Amino acid sequence: MKISEKRVVLVTGATGGLGTAMCRKLYDDGYIVVANYRNEEKAKEWQEKQHNEGHDIKMYYADVADFDSCGIMIEKITNEIGPVDVLVNNAGITKDGAFRKMSYENWRAVMATNLDSVFNCTRHVINPMIDKGFGRIINISSVNGQRGQFGQANYSAAKAGMHGFTKTLAMEVANKGITVNTISPGYIGTDMVMAVKEEIRNQIIAQIPMGRLGGTEEVAYLVSFLASEHANFITGANMSINGGQHVY
Ligand code: CAA
Q1: Is 8-237 CATH 3.40.50.720?
Q2: Is 155 a catalytic residue?
């Protein structure tokens, strides 16, 4: 396949555990993979590691919490590589704490990075996707947006909000060749989950019927499927991938 015929995928927050696995899988699938980053130093090291392991991934800076920063990034990608065909809204942070102690700053930071980001990136790619008659928006939410989690009022609210966005946008663009879906991973073996105190993490793992954390590649395969033409008829869905931790 010539470069120009390849689809362009943009993964936000790409240098984290889930983002890395997605970028590598999508590269192996034959996409031109564009990884968004915020930390320059970490990004350079990450890109070199991926390159050395056979994954040639392009990197673009943006603070996804900032609408204009996302606009500049997407304009550059469009001019230098081509319009974004697949957008994976993956960037996310946690600022956990019992709600009665939660600061306004920790509420805002999580809402801005985890939910505003979905508007900030999607708004800049949606009209070109409509013009092209093809697009994929994949929002990476969380089991904790589906069911709540002690200490995550901010995170759960943002993650639940992502799926509300998915449902509406899916309806609005269903007849334009664009699908919009949410993936809700459970506890996956990423730095974010490993940052939870060991004792608490073990209590959480004990609630997972499969008795283990998920693998980042397991989520990457689902992203790959939703991005593909095999998933043409799936839109507005929220796909759980949580080892049975939350079933409904
Ligand atoms: N359920 C019920 N009560 C709980 C509780 C729980 N899970 N955890 C703590 N409590 C209770 C405590 O026993 C304590 O009770 P008393 O006031 O009666 O003594 C009270 O709540 C307050 O506890 P703390 O003072 O310890 O609260 P804290 O704010 O210092 O710590 C916390 C709370 C940091 C949020 C800690 O509970 C924690 O780390 N929880 C895990 C959060 C979590 O799962 N984060 C996921 C991160 S990974 C991720 O987000 C990825 C993804 O999508 C899955």
Answers
A1: yes
A2: yes
- This prediction has a pTM of 0.96
Q: Would you list the domain boundaries of the chain?
A: 8-237
| CA pair distance 157, 99, nearest whole angstrom | 12
For residue 99, the CA-to-ligand 1 centroid distance in Å is: 10
Tokens, residue 195: 């940052």
Shortest-distance atom of ligand 1 to CA 96: 35
Of the residues 27, 37, 60, 155, only one is catalytic, namely 155
Q: Is residue 29 a contact partner of residue 8, using CB atoms and an 8 Å limit?
A: no
What is the whole-number distance in angstroms between the Cα of residue 118 and the centre of ligand 1? 27
- Which of 90, 95, 96, 115 is the pocket-test mutation for ligand 1 (most atoms within 8 Å of CB)? 96
77-133 pLDDT per residue, tens: 999 999 999 999 999 999 999 999 999 999 999 999 999 999 999 999 999 999 999
